[in-house]
Amino acid sequence: MRISWPGRPLVADGVVAVLALALAGGTSLTAVRGADPLLWAALLAVSVWLSACLALRRAWPTGAFVAGSIAMLVLVALPDIPGDVSPVLLPFSLIYPVLLYSVVAYAERSAPPVLCGLLGAAIAVARVLFDYPEPAIDWPTVVGLGAGAVGSVLAAWALGRYRRIRIAYVRSLEERAVQAEQLREQQVRDAIAAERRLIAREIHDVAAHSLAVVLAQADTARLVFDRDPEKARAMIGTAVEVGREAMGEMRSMLGVLRAGDESIETGGDLAELVEKFRGTGADVELVGTGTPREISTAQRHAVYRIVQESVTNSLKHVGSGVSCRVALDWGADRLVVAVSDDGPGTAADLTARGGYGIVGMAERMRQIGGDFVVRSEPGAGTEVRAEFGYSAR
Q1: Which residues of 333-350 are buried (b: 16+ CB within 10 A; e: fewer)?
Q2: Average pLDDT score over residue span 255-270
Q3: Is the pTM above the cut of 0.70?
Q4: Which tens digit of pLDDT belongs to each residue from 1-52?
Q5: Of 129, 189, 259, 306, whose CB has the highest number of CB atoms within 10 Å?
């Protein structure tokens, strides 16, 4: 019943059909030796017919069952073989329960086949009753025959249902395995994309800030070199120091990314960052209101990068003469970080149309569950505002 080659059920069932024809068909035809040649030829045709249905039971389950049912009706209609035995009781009739099992197991609907099988069992029992020559009927034999016919139909139906449920269960496991593999691949792709965004954002933060400071120092040093060499050398030294710090910070950040740790150090606190900006000649003010609270490493890192990126953008887009104000408002349940400048401002929506720096700042706030907005108006400067709850992660 379960012999198969991968992808070739017709070949396996064909082998089984040939064996069934040789055994059951041969035994049945041997039992009718001496019968009318036409009856013998009809029984041979029916045996081949049922064997062919057996070969097609999985490749064409519904068609094979219907053809097998017709063959069984032909057996019921044929006259008795020698010994007053109905042809429906010959051994090759046992192929029919196998066809019923197959149509229940491999077809979509199982109720019509089992009803057809029960009807066929009733017809077969009625045919046997019709053959009794004596007025007295051997009821135990008839009851046993009826119970055997009905039992074979129900057994084939039960086995077919079990097989069908088993097939559906295995298919569901295979589908789940495929979905799990697809989900794993998607998670890997998402993780790779997230890591790339993280690396790009970190490199942008470090490179943009440091290069802005280095370029500002180098450009100023170039302008004052002839009239004030000492000041030019100091500025060049500051540029070199900032560049070295940026290289060290970038190596540290890339090392943490390779290790898979998201708690990247900020490289210093806000006071030190503001002093670095002031050391380049920028006018940066740091003010705080309220009582400072303990926040997570990710939140500290986000605040540091937002202040760094905002001041750097002001210096880069407005110039070294811009004045910046960094305000920290430690509220009862939220921290508000506001970085504003006195530049010319713009009417463009920087929150939606900003560059990589603004996109990176907005992404950082989303990661810790905070809000982020950039406000800018012509003649009123630009303000970067970020806020989040102390419990945000």
Answers
A1: ebbbbbbbbbbebeeeeb
A2: 53
A3: no
A4: 444 444 567 777 778 878 877 877 777 777 666 667 787 788 888 888 888 8
A5: 306
Distance of CA 308 to the CA centre of its chain: 39
- The string of DSSP letters for 314-333 reads HHHHT-TT-EEEEEEEE-SS
Tell me the C-alpha distance between 284 and 316, whole Å.
14
Is residue 134 predicted with pLDDT exceeding 60? no
Per-residue confidence (pLDDT) for residue 244, from 0 to 100: 74
Chain center to CA of 90: 55
**Mean pLDDT score across all residues of the chain:** 78
For residue 372, give the nearest of 274, 357, 381, 380 by alpha carbon.
357
Q: Which two tokens stand for residue 150?
A: 């009905």
Sheet holding 323-330, edge to edge: 283-290, 323-330, 334-341, 382-389, 371-376
Determine how many CB atoms are found less than 10 A away from the CB of residue 153. Answer: 24
Residue 298, burial from CB neighbour count under 10 angstroms (0-12, 13-18, 19+): middle
Inter-helix orientation angle 139-224/356-367, to 10°: 130
Q: What's the CA gap between 128 and 315, in Å, rounded?
A: 105
Distance in angstroms (rounded) separating the CA atoms of residues 204 and 197: 10
Compute the distance between CA of residue 21 and CA of residue 278 in angstroms, rounded to an integer. 99
Helix (H, G, I), strand (E, B) or coil at 32: coil
Q: Other CB atoms closer than 10 Å to residue 256's CB: what's the count?
A: 15
Instruction: State whether the Cα torsion 122-66-69-3 is positive or negative.
Output: negative
Distance CA 201, CA 120 (A): 76
List of residues 6+ apart from 151 with CB closer than 8 A: none
Phi and psi, residue 341, nearest 5° = -135, 170
Q: Which of 77-101 are b and which e, b meaning 16 or more Cβ less than 10 Å from the residue's Cβ?
A: ebeebeeeebbbbbbbbebbbbbbb
Backbone phi, psi, residue 39, to 5°: -65, -40
Q: Any idea which residue has 């802005």 for tokens?
A: 212
